[in-house]
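dude i think i finally got it to work??
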Amino acid sequence: MDDDVNEDRSSDADQRAAEWVARLDGRPLDDAEREAFRRWLEAHPDHRPAFDEAHRAWRSLDLLRADPGPLRSVPRPTARKRVSRAGIAGIVSVLVLGLLGLRYQIGDPWIAFAADWRTEPGQVRQVELDDGSVVDLGPDSALALHFSASERRVTLLAGEAFFQAAPRVGTERRPFLVDAANGTTTALGTQFLVEERGGGARITAVEHRIEVALHTPDQATQSAVLSPGDTVQYHLHGGLGRVDTVDVEQVTAWRKGFLVFDSVPLEEVVRQLNRYRRGRIIVANPQLAQRRVSGVFATRDLNDVIRTITAELGANASSLPPLVTLLY
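look at this
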């Protein structure tokens, strides 16, 4: 019972701290508001640390100017009167926190609408398709199915998935294809991994061969055939990359409940960790983002990973629970 009370008190402190930070970013406080703020800070020992954490994380939201995500598609209103700078800051702050809060609660609403199968952050799910193919859907991932009389087509909307495609034998003659970020992977064998990477994807052959094709804006097609252990990345604007080899056990370790990093840039580690938590981790320093991380972490308990990594790299972390954790 005491633990529940403490957790509720901490949550209330975090919420009030975020409200005060947003309020202080608007117009100056009047005398009554300053007094109310002072009384709140002194009312409990948790309030000052909560405010300090919220203030540091709030400033980190400036990073969203470089990567606004869903805010990019928000239309600009036609204003009939001049809006003050403080008013604009308040509106943007509400939008940012609202969008982050929506994603915290339900994930990307557009993906939730389009997906036939999806997983929550930290959840791994195995799905058997109508043709007998089996898909291991990684955390925070989503699939849409487009089976027809002529083909078995799947779209990876987000995250990653390990496919065990039912072979084309007997009465099943339809090809098995997976679309991801303007590319298509065709199963020439049975097992392969597809990982969506924001405008691109990484494809890895596990058993038998697969064909990867990228459809470029000029209507051209770049393609490669992968054998087991081969991997290739592509991006709409960067084209089809070179074919490399990988440790298949390492890149599919998430299926067994582990994340394995072998001298991997921190930005890549953070990208994977963000699939296991509802809040977002942001690396504020470009140099820090390129620092290398090695380790094996059990996905069932990632609470101490940020602390371990920051200690190893000599970095710092600040949080605006439960939305943002800033590494710097």
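The longest strand covers residues 200-207.
im so relieved honestly
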